[in-house]
Amino acid sequence: MPAPLLEASRISKRFGATQALSGVDLALHAGEIHARRGENGAGTSTLLKILGGVEQADAGRLQLAGSDYAPAAPREALRSGVVLVHQELALCAELSVEQNLCLGREPRRGLRLDLGAQRERARTALALVGMSDLDPARSIGTLSIAQRQWLEIARALVHPSRVLVLDEPTSSLAREDVTRLFRLVRAASQQGTAVLYVSHALEEVRELCTHWTVLRDGESVASGEVRDTPTSRLIAHMAGRELGELYPRRPHTPAEELLRVSVAPPADPLIVRRGEVLGIYGLIGAGRSELLRGIFGLDPQTAELEVLHARGARTPAERWAMGVGMVVEDRAREGLFLERSLADNLSLPALRGLFSSPAARRATSEPWRERLAIKSASVEAPMRTLSGGNQQKVALARLLAAKSQLFLLDEPTRGVDVRAKSEIYRWIDTIASEQRGGVLLVSSYAPELLGVCDTIRVMQAGVLGPARPASEWTQEQLVEAAFGAERAA
Amino acid sequence: MKGLRALLPLLAPFLGLLAVWCFFALAAGGDFTSFSNLRLMLLQTAVVGTAAIGATLIIAGGGIDLSVGSSVALGTVIGALVLTQGGSPAAAALAMPLMGLYLGAWIGCLVSGRVLSALALAVALLTACWGLRTQAGALPIAIALFGGAAAAVFAARFPWRLPLSPFIVTLGTWGALRGLAKGLGDNQPVYPASTGWIAELMQGGSWLAPGVWLWLGLAVLAALYLSHTVPGRHLFAVGSNERTARLCGVDVERTQLLTYSLGIACAGVAALLQLSYLSMGDPTTAQGLELRAIAAAVIGGASLAGGSGSIPGTIAGALLMTVVDNGCTKLGMDNWVQEVVTGAIIVTAVALDRWRGRRTT
C-alpha cells in the first residue's frame, strides 16, 4: 500500500475544560473516500477545523504528501490544496455569487481585480454543479439554503484539490441533489483527490465511501473498509451501544382534530389529530417549511386554517398560548439562543404572567433535561457549549415544557447524531401514544417518516398530495411522488 | 470551586473595582480613603450611574442609545422651565422621567418600525415643547402629549413596519434632542429661582445623599426587572436573537418599545439628579455622558451584540471610572491621564471578558 497522502498522528486539542481531541490518528490515501463518523461533540468538527487551518492542534503531527503540514489559517490550507466544505454555510450574504465563489482567490491583473476572469471562473464553477442558469451577479441573500449549499460545493470543486473535506454536505440537499453530489465526489476521487466525508446518514456512507472511521469522546475507536462491514456493526460502533429499534412504535389511537388547514387548490384538508403523527415528505423548496411556518404564524399565512377549533390567531405568541409549538429547521440562526443558558432556552415559551424567578425557571427546565437525557454541565450551561444533538433535544423539550398539544416539527433530526435521533423518535412516539398531542412532522428523509409516522402526505411544488397510511408507502413511491409528474411520465 | 467559577463573570467588575480602589488607597493614602471622599465619589457617580442602568437595559435588549446625554440635557431644561413657570418641585421631578418615558416610546417606535406612531409622538413632543416655551400652561401640554400617545396607539394598528437601526436612530436623536434643549432654553441655561427639595437630592442627607439612594434603589428595581419578570426575560431573548425570540412567542416589537421606554426613563431620572446638582437647566450639560454610560455597562459585562448585561456589574463599572478620575486627581495627575487610563480600562475589561468566554467554549 502506498504512503498516505494526508496523515495525522496523535492530534490533540483542548478548549478550556473540554478535551475535544485526544491523540487522534487519520490516514487518507489518494483516491479514497473516507467516511468519518462520530456523534455530535465527538470531536469530528474540531479535527476538520484543524485540517482546514481554522484551528491549530495543541499536540500531534500532520503530514501532507510526506512533508509537515501545519496550516495557521484557512488561506494556507487552501494553498496546500486542502479544501473544506463547511456544514454551516460559510458564504457572505451581502456579496454576489461570483464574489463568493472567488473569495480569497480573486483573479487579478496586476493590482486590479480581473472582473472578466472572475465571471468566467464563476460560470465554470456553476456549470460544474449544474447551476449554469444562475446569474453570477445575484446576491447570496436571495438564494435558498440548498442553492447556497451547492455554491459552497462549487467553490470547493472549481479548483483541483489534493484533499477534499466535506462536513455533512447533504444536510440541506434533496435526494436527487445528493446523487449529483456523489457523482462529483467520485469524479474528484478518481482524479486522485483524497476525500474525507463526514455524515450522519448511514445510507450515504454505504453508497459513497470506501473506508470508515468512528470517533468517540475525542478518540478513534474503530475503522475498516465499508465493503467488509455490515450495517449493524456500523450502527453499533456509532452509538457505542445497541440502539435496538431506531423507530419505536407503540399503538397510536387518533382522537379529536387539533389542526385543520384548507389547502389552496381543492385537495383534502390537512388534518392533524391528537394521538397521531402526520408526516409531510418533499424536496427542499417544495413549500413544506413555508406551510409549517405559515401555520405557526412565522411567515404570512396563505391558507385558511383552524387550530384547536379556533380561527384568527396570527402570531407565534398566540399559537403558544393555544398549545401549539414549533421546532424550526435552522437551529443555529433561528431555533436557539446560543449565548443564553439551557434553562433560558427551554423555559421561555412556558413563562406566563408577569413574574418568573430564576429558581422557577430552573425547576421548569431540570426535569426535562433529565427526561430527554440532555447532556450538559447544568441547566445554566450556555447553549453553545452543547452538542448539536443535545441542542436539538432542548428545542423539542421547549414544546414539552410549555405543555404544547400540537407539535410542528420541521426537520427535527437534521444534522443530529444517531443517539439523539433515536431519543427524538422515542419522544415523538410518546407524544402520540400517550395522547399528549398530535405531531406534524416535515422531513426530506424518507426512512424516518416511514419509521415514525401514521400517515404521510407528499408535497410537490407547493401542492399537498393525498393522505395515505405510512404502511402503504414505500421509499421509492415517496421519492417518485416528490419529484412529481415529469418524473413519473 | 465550581460555584466560584460560575460566579466569576459576575464578580469580575467588582474585583476590578476593588483592585483599582486598593491601588489608589495605597498610592494616595487617607485623603483618598476617607469617608467624605467615598461619599463624594458615590455622589459623582449618581448621574452617570443612573443613565448607565438605562443603557444596560437597552444594550442587553439588543439596542444602543447614543442620545442619553442629549436626553439628560433636555430633561434639565424641561425641569427648570417647569419650575420657572410656577410648577412645584414635585411636578418638575415627575416631568423629567415622564419625558424620558415619552422619548423612549418614540425611539422604541422608530427602532421597532412603527414609523406612523413615531411620527405622531414626534409631533406631540414638538407641540408640547412649543407649549412649554410659550408658557401655555400644563393643560395644553398634557392634551398634546395624551393626544399624541392616543394617535400613536391608533397608528400602531396599521401593519406597515419599517424597522430602523438603533445606532442610526439615536445618532439622529443625539443631535435633535440637544438642539431641542437649546431651542427651549434660547441657547441659554434656564435658572429657576429655587429648585426646592430637588436641590437636597445631591447635597442633603446625613450619611449618603438621597440622590445616591435613588440611584441605588433604581438599580435594585432594574436588576429585579431583568431577573424576576417575564418582560425582563423577553428583553434578554430579543437581545440575544430576535428570530428565536419571535419563534418562542415573544412579542419583539412590544419588548423593544418597553425596553427603550424604561431605559430612557432612567435618563429622565438622571436628568433630575443633574438638575439637582446644577440648580439650573443647561442645554449643553452631560456632553459625552452617553459614552460613559455605555462604557459602564460594557465594563460591567454587557455585550454590544446584545443578550447579556448585569445591573450590579454596571454599577461597579460606573464606580470604577469615578475611582480612576478621583484617584488621579488626588495624586495630582493631569486630566489627560484619567482619560487615557479610563480608555485602557474599558478595552481591558472587554478583552478579559472575551478571553474568559473563549476559555469556557
Kindly describe this structure.
The complex is a heterodimer of chains A (489) and B (361). Chain A is α/β, with parallel strands linked by helices. Chain A has 2 domains: 6-239, P-loop containing nucleotide triphosphate hydrolases (Rossmann fold); 257-488, P-loop containing nucleotide triphosphate hydrolases (Rossmann fold). Chain A is built from 18 helices and 22 strands. Chain A has helices at 44-51, 74-79, 97-101, 115-128, 145-157, 175-190, 202-208, 231-239, 288-296, 316-322, 331-335, 342-347, 358-371, 388-401, 418-433, 446-452, 475-483, 485-488; strands at residues 6-15, 18-28, 33-38, 59-64, 67-68, 82-85, 108-109, 112-113, 163-167, 194-198, 211-216, 219-225, 257-262, 270-273, 277-281, 304-307, 324-327, 406-410, 438-443, 455-460, 463-464, 468-469. In chain A, a hairpin with a 2-residue loop joins strand 1 and strand 2. Residues 485-489 of chain A have low confidence and may be disordered. Chain B has one domain (44-113, 163-359): ABC transporter involved in vitamin B12 uptake, BtuC (Orthogonal Bundle), CATH 1.10.3470. Chain B is globular, with a radius of gyration of 21 Å. Chain B is 76% helix and 0% strand. Chain B has helices spanning 2-28, 30-33, 35-60, 68-84, 89-112, 115-133, 138-155, 166-184, 210-228, 230-240, 242-247, 252-278, 289-299, 311-330, 335-359. Chain B contains 15 helices and no strands. The longest helix of chain B is centred in the first third of the chain and has 27 residues, at 2-28. By secondary structure, chain B is an all-alpha fold. Classes of the chains: A alpha/beta (489), B mainly alpha (361). The A-B interface holds A 15-18, 298, 315-317, 319-321, 326, 328, 333-340, 344, 348-349, 351-358, 361, 380, 382, 384-385, 398 and B 6, 227-231, 233, 236-237, 240-241, 243-251, 303, 305, 307-308, 358-361.
